[in-house]
Specification:
mainly alpha, 3 domains, 63% helix
Length: 219
Amino acid sequence: MTSDRRRQAQADPWADDRPAPDWLGDVSAGVDAWSKRADPGRDTPEVPVAEDPEPDHDAVARKILLDQLTGQARSRKELADKLATRNVPDDIATRLLDRFEEVGLVDDEAFARSWIASRQPGKGLARRALAQELRRKGVDDEIAREALDEIDPEDERAAGRALVRKKLRSMSRIDEQAKIRRLVGMLARKGYAPGLAFAIVREELAEVPDELGMPDSDL
């Protein structure tokens, strides 16, 4: 794309009669292109729908969506709910959300993968808990299942072991059976199936004496 055509597409990336912009599919670049964040002189003030008797609903809805997408991806339902709270008419909300999907700014499949990538290792969540979170975010079950199928079982197990290992540091004065109950309960809350939770806890407990330099009898 020539520099003139690139400037034209960035000036109004929503014009249907113009070629697809360079940022197609890139949320951050797309938000920057429309809102002109690279231009410090551009002012894009908040436009409250409820307070404007004759608002430009299209412009307001676009501003709301771009603000919501700045810094992080969001599911379509999250964005739709936000538009609803700002009294954007349903037909306008649906049309703009469809358009945002067309240009790749809204993508529930990418959102699901990104959510899992941040929550699975960061919070140690297992598939069951992640599925519940994605459902609350409004992601379709089939889309969520496809994203969850990409989780490596060994990564899930490693995340569970890391949780148990960290928790064990504060349980030195608790007897083994109490440790098992508490640790299995913790993993269950993180979405781990009972069998896997027990296996992870047993594996970590078996390594505690060596790691802390204590004899087995001290457990």
